[in-house]
Model the fold of this input.
Amino acid sequence: MKPVPVIGAGLAGSEAAWQLAEAGILVHLYEMRPLVKTPAHQGEDCAELVCSNSLGSHLPDRAGGVLMAELRALQCHLLPIAEAHAVPAGGALAVDRIPFAKAVTKSLEAHPLITLIREEVLTIPDGLCIVASGPLTSEALSRSIEKLSGKDHLSFFDAIAPVVLGDSLNRDSIFKASRWNKNADEGDYLNIPLNKEAYQTFINNLLQAECHPLKDFEASDPRAKIFFERCLPIEILAARGEDSLRFGPMRPVGLEDPRTGKRPYAVIQLRAENLSGSLYNLVGFQTHLKYGEQERILRSLPGLENVEFERLGSMHRNTFLDSPRLLTSCLEWRERHGLFFAGQITGMEGYLGNIGSGLLAAQSLIQRFKREEPVPLPITTVLGGLARHVATAPSPSFQPMKASFGALPPHISPVSKKERGQAYAKRSADDLARHLHNGCPQ
Done:
């Protein structure tokens, strides 16, 4: 049997390798560290947690907790190891990161069907393969992926605007419309009109707010000088002149406030982040402000007084695919059966999402190995919803997403906000149980 290569021994690659091996498939798990270092990793163990040591909420009515339940049902390997190395963190699952990574490495090295190879992979191999090389994919492998995907489908700097929950918006201060009356009956955007005074206050707040400093490896990357100009943080644009935003992402041209019959002085546009409209992206509001500053400034605006944030804005070096054009909801390359991607490079954010993506990619590959067509997870599960987001989100405005109820179809029965998480959790468990009962891989 020819071994299946899994490229990258982070969370996604480690989980994928274990799933394949447990299915009786020989695996070559490639990790370039310590031979090739990255600017972020400190050690050489598999599944190293580079940033926070928290895997997110384990509460059963939160998206993270529901995803954990799904991973247990799918016989995830890394989650029990994380729970065995948990440290006190309230309602979150946080781990002692060094012992956790060592335990994962030890378990992988001990598996008779897994060979851990310390070597940089320069090109994508032929045949069955999982690429889980992470946001700091090496230059050589990035070029190989770029050659396969096309230059326009691989991003090197990730400029992220805040995303908010749609039901937390104050619709009394918002009108729905598209520029120049296009789709006037429905409108493609939610619009927050600002008068001159409110706009100038917003500009002053931006200019006085504190920003996150760029990490050394982000600031020194030669590609930043090209890409940052195309996606400058909103606070940098504001510093170029008082009217720069009003003639940029906050331009009111082509919009008329139906309550006044006039064009606003400036406008903030919100665009649906998903098909159900439960999440909205603040258009053009990519930012490097500190998180507390973002919350304070945005909640001072009309319509956003009590807004809940699904994700705050950020800007950092990252490698991720324009997945909706390239991957299916089984994380398979659309133009090449048998090639799967997993981890943050797919746009599935967060530690749990990374683990889940590795599990999903491996299950899909197992089906290809058996000469079967990969079967997607139910979209009512958090993992299935994330996979659908990866495969169907609007492109090229696609941005990564972590575990979120906003990735799921709305619940059929009307439930209160308090009961929403419980309803989503029950629906996920029921639908996943039916999925597994029907003989889909686990």
Summary: The two ends are 22 Å apart (CA to CA). The CA atoms of residues 288 and 314 lie 5 Å apart.
